[in-house]
């Protein structure tokens, strides 16, 4: 019971969320200051830095943490939709690391625009097509797994699904809008902050949510008789 009370009193999920959000906010403030007063230098501290900027690497770390927690949750609960979550965040990590969405957008835009017409608008059209394909694929998988899960899993799945919708809104929706304003200084800066900041805050919230799920599960396990734990999973 001492261990149970210790878990219940644990503030670690809230502490972790606060630390992540503070770091996210710090990167946003640094981006604004560098953009306004130092002509976007040093590039490595910008939210949209080319290559491996610090904010982007911080996002990669969150992806890896989420994948580790999700794998652990699958080990604990044996809920198969956690496999989907693991693959989904692995896909996000690979896409971000190799910038596959921009590569795919370029390929798709070339189907509708000649090289002489190629610009940010053309890339935006390719991004729109790519976004629609990803959204349809994501919704199809979500619907399939929702139909196959138990009622207990459905409640968890819906919470995660809503957070993922926010993440995709910033990562696809705002990013798509941003493509059409790349050459507009103030608008581009604002959309960069909304897009990257929204992704960072949402991903930090997802880290908190998955970690909280582990803590809640531990509390639940230690609150029932040991003989019944396997059956209650």
TrEMBL record:
Keywords, comma-separated and alphabetical: Membrane, Transmembrane, Transmembrane helix
Name of this chain's protein: Uncharacterized protein
Transmembrane segments: 15-38, 58-75, 80-100, 120-145, 157-181, 187-211
